[in-house]
Specification:
Shape: elongated
Helix content: 55-70%
Number of helices: 7
Order of helices and strands: HHHHHHH
Strand content: under 5%
Structural class: mainly alpha
Largest sheet: none
Radius of gyration: 17 Å
């Protein structure tokens, strides 16, 4: 993944916008209409072909019903909370029993990886 000098992962921002948009049953056209942005601009943001302006980000989060913090949490490069917001979004619609099952599954997976000294290749090994 190409990094930029701002330390912001624009691809992850785009992915998160797309994910929340789809969870809200919004098409790119509907989001564009409600934010007064173009469909191509929304597409370019989601695909990290363009960097969203702060004004555009605010318009998008207001329509999607999330905060800027929720959108941007974890998008900084080298962020220790990577995937936390993604996990929160995935689990938002789960029942208490489903959440417990997912927790036990993840906990067991981590225990097995560590017990067997399995290492997952990092995305950017230079870090």
């Amino acid at each position: 993944m190409r990094q930029n000098n701002t330390g912001i992962n624009h691809k992850q921002i785009g992915n998160r916008i797309k994910e929340v948009r789809e969870q809200n049953d919004y098409s790119q056209a509907k989001l564009a209409e409600e934010t007064d942005l173009s469909v191509s601009y929304i597409s370019h943001i989601e695909n990290a072909k363009r960097k969203a302006s702060l004004e555009s980000i605010v318009r998008i989060v207001n329509v999607l019903g999330i905060t800027v913090d929720e959108l941007l949490a974890g998008v900084q490069l080298h962020n220790p909370t990577d995937y936390q917001t993604d996990i929160d979004l995935l689990m938002a619609g789960c029942s208490a029993d489903e959440k417990r099952f997912i927790y036990e599954l993840v906990k067991t997976s981590i225990d097995i990886m560590r017990k067997n000294d399995w290492h997952i290749a990092r995305e950017n090994p230079a870090n």
